């Protein structure tokens, strides 16, 4: 069985640290080409991972005889790149979010369907052995009927501040970019939304998003999402980018809890804990990290060779998770408490001692327009979303 030729488009951190290390060790696949707008970056990864070709132009990349493409470019470019893949007859595995626009995702799905090529979303959390085991445990009724899921990921997105060339402290460009794209639910929460739908085998019937503003971006940096599934279960997803974001010794909190009629399945990353507690006793299961790119690409290889999707997250799964996450963020912005808006956060450090007046840090490097029209244009690419309720609706 000949190996399928894979091209990686976009040579940023997710390609370097996630996809390429897994792809080069996946049976049935060979990484034949890489491309990035920064050609030197392509050459660096070509040498490091032993890739046959690093193309200097995108046109050469698309004209090559690849079987499939892993798209790791920035989200605003995904529409163009998926349409090019469809035009050139290549299967696609695309990083999340598939796009910043639901309409664009629907165009992408239609184009790939017309080209008769497979189109998958890079939800690598599904393939952690722990996540796969949870899927099996739910199916076999290890805790009875699952009625409630609590999925939590609180972290600092690598910190609130960084330093410029003059050693001046400025807001982290990574953080600013992720917040302007929609914040933690859109960027990271799509994984938890996908897991809830996949574990339960049940779609979402209703939802409610509630935001908290530790910082003063348009989107909330701490979000609660409640989901009602058609099977009757309820999921609560809690996501944060502000958790210990200014701490000198930051920590995170990542946990899954599935509460059933006969017990609880619990996974905690920081404790390296994975357990089932039910009426028969307690089972302590092997713990594994929450991400697994190797498992994702083994399943991708199987799909490319057989045409069977099995557990691969489809583009439709990506669309569903994106729609839920963006709607939750829109709801949170629309219904933001008036008291929160009238008392904006001061972007400053807490005083180290009684003599430290803690002056606000000047943010000359970043300008954020908080007007409703600009919020729509900045976060979701259009001003048509109902991002805020009319002033008359507030007490």
Quick gist of this model?
With 395 residues, the protein is of the alpha/beta class. It has helices at residues 13-23, 39-49, 58-63, 78-87, 102-114, 129-140, 173-180, 184-187, 189-200, 293-306, 315-334, 338-341, 372-379, and strands at 4-9, 29-35, 53-54, 68-71, 91-94, 119-121, 146-154, 161-163, 169-171, 204-212, 222-229, 234-240, 253-260, 263-268, 273-278, 281-284. Strands 10-11-12-7-13-14-15-16 form an eight-stranded mixed sheet. The chain has a six-stranded parallel sheet with strand order 3-2-1-4-5-6, with helices on both faces.
General description of the model:
There is one protein chain. The protein is built from 13 helices and 16 strands. The longest helix is centred in the last third of the chain and has 20 residues. The strands form three sheets. Strands 10-11-12-7-13-14-15-16 form an eight-stranded mixed sheet. It has a six-stranded parallel sheet with strand order 3-2-1-4-5-6, with helices on both faces. The C terminus is likely disordered. With 395 residues, it is an alpha/beta fold. The protein is globular and about 55 Å long.
Helix percent band: 25-40%
Spatial strand sequence of the major β-sheet: 10-11-12-7-13-14-15-16
Number of strands: 16
Please count the helical segments.
Answer: 13
Structural class: alpha/beta
Mean model confidence by pLDDT:
89
- What fraction strand? 15-25%
End-to-end gap? 67 Å
Shape: globular
- The low-confidence runs, each spanning 5 or more residues with pLDDT under 50, are 357-395
Quaternary organisation: single chain
- Taken in chain order, the helices and strands follow as EHEHEHEHEHEHEEEHHHEEEEEEEHHHH
Mind telling me the C-alpha Rg? Answer: 22 Å
Largest sheet: 8 strands, mixed
């Amino acid at each position: 069985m000949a190996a399928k030729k894979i091209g990686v488009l976009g040579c940023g951190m997710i390609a370097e640290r996630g996809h390429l290390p897994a792809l080069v060790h996946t049976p049935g696949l060979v990484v034949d080409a890489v491309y990035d707008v920064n050609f030197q970056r392509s050459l660096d990864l070509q040498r490091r991972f032993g890739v046959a070709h690093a193309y200097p132009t995108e046109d050469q990349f698309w004209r090559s005889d690849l079987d499939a493409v892993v798209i790791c470019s920035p989200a605003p470019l995904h529409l163009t790149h998926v349409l090019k893949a469809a035009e050139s007859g290549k299967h696609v595995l695309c990083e999340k979010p598939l796009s910043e626009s639901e309409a664009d995702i629907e165009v992408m799905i239609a184009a790939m369907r017309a080209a008769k090529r497979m189109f998958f979303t890079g939800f690598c959390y599904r393939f952690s052995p722990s996540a796969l085991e949870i899927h099996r445990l739910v199916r076999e009724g290890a805790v009875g009927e699952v009625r409630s899921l609590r999925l939590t990921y609180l972290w600092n997105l690598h910190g609130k501040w960084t330093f410029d060339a003059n050693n001046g402290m400025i807001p982290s460009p990574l953080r600013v970019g992720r917040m302007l794209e929609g914040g933690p639910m859109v960027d990271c929460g799509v994984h938890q939304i996908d897991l809830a739908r996949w574990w339960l085998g049940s779609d979402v019937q209703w939802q409610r998003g509630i935001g908290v503003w530790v910082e003063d971006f348009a989107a909330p940096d701490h979000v609660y999402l409640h989901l009602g599934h058609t099977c009757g279960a309820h999921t609560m997803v809690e996501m944060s980018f502000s958790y210990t974001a200014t701490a000198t010794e930051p920590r995170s909190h990542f946990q899954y809890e599935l509460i059933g009629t006969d017990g609880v399945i619990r996974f905690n990353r920081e404790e390296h804990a994975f357990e089932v507690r039910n009426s028969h006793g307690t089972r302590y299961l092997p713990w594994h990290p929450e991400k697994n790119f190797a498992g994702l690409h083994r399943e991708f290889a199987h799909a490319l060779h057989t045409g069977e999707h099995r557990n691969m997250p489809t583009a439709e799964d990506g669309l569903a998770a994106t729609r839920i996450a963006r709607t939750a963020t829109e709801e949170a912005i629309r219904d933001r408490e008036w008291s929160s808006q009238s008392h904006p956060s001061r972007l400053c450090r807490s005083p180290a001692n009684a003599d430290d007046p803690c002056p606000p840090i000047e943010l000359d490097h970043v300008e954020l327009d908080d007007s409703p029209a600009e919020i729509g244009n900045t976060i979701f690419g259009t001003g048509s979303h109902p991002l805020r309720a009319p002033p008359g609706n507030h007490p």
